[in-house]
Amino acid sequence: MEYPFITYKPVQFGESEMISRSKVFYDLMDQRRSVRDFSDRDVPEEIIRNIVKTAGTAPSGAHKQPWVFCVIRNKTLKSRLRALAEEEEKKNYEGRMSERWIKDLAPLGTNEKKEFIDIAPWIIVVMKKSYDQDADGTKTNNYYVNESVGIASGFLIAAIHNAGLVTLTHTPSPMNFIAKALNRPDIEKPYLLLPVGYPAEACKVPDLTRKAYDEIAIYFE
Ligand SMILES: Cc1cc2nc3c(=O)[nH]c(=O)nc-3n(C[C@H](O)[C@H](O)[C@H](O)COP(=O)(O)O)c2cc1C
Questions:
Q1: Are 118 and 74 in contact (CB under 8 A)?
Q2: What CATH number did the domain enclosing 159 receive?
Q3: pTM above 0.90, yes or no
Q4: What is the pLDDT of residues 123-156, one digit of tens each?
Q5: Which structural domain range is residue 62 located in?
Q6: Mutation pick for ligand 1 pocket among 169, 205, 210 (CB with most ligand atoms within 8 Å)
Q7: Ligand 1 proximity of 106 Cβ (cutoff 6 Å)
Q8: Total structural domains in the chain?
Q9: Are 116 and 52 in contact (CB under 8 A)?
């Protein structure tokens, strides 16, 4: 069977513009922080739509696009998710997490309270599909699902930041309660929960430093 191919239209710039664009993008991304203190200021749906569409441009194993983004604005549903997340996180902080894990989290100032799920105007739950079903319900395979959904989530986080909004990569573990609360089918498993909105006024974030370039890059020239 012959499959169709189309001509790729490259996005191209002169070298000095490439240097400038790569620096500008790095500077923008370097300002991204995980925010845990949100404002309730509303965000237009169109921005959320563009952000989620950007996540949907990610590459995926065999182009299976094994993701679904649940976009939540409903206040009752947000409150329910918050209550369920806090229930699980209480158990985590009161015994399910190791002492070492609690110690590693200490600089972040996190605890079982998850007000941001109520306060942020939007919650995006990223769902991953380890397998899929075609129209007649036959099981079909997905490939490199964690890698694919992880990359799409990275695009999502970058798009949120690029739009001038903030988010938190939240993993209220175990996350099965989310699929139930959202009434999603068994083939979808919650991957991340991201509140999206503006930071609260005078919002503070932990004073963290990122690894130096030499620590993250190794050249083989
Ligand atoms: C996979 C993953 C899961 C995370 N889960 C949580 C979480 O459940 N709660 C939380 O407060 N932060 C969570 N974080 C955020 C990290 O704590 C944060 O990215 C890290 O401290 C670095 O801070 P920065 O994002 O501001 O650079 C998570 C991050 C990742 C990548």
A1: no
A2: 3.40.109.10
A3: yes
A4: 999 999 999 999 998 999 999 999 999 999 999 9
A5: 35-201
A6: 169
A7: no
A8: 1
A9: no
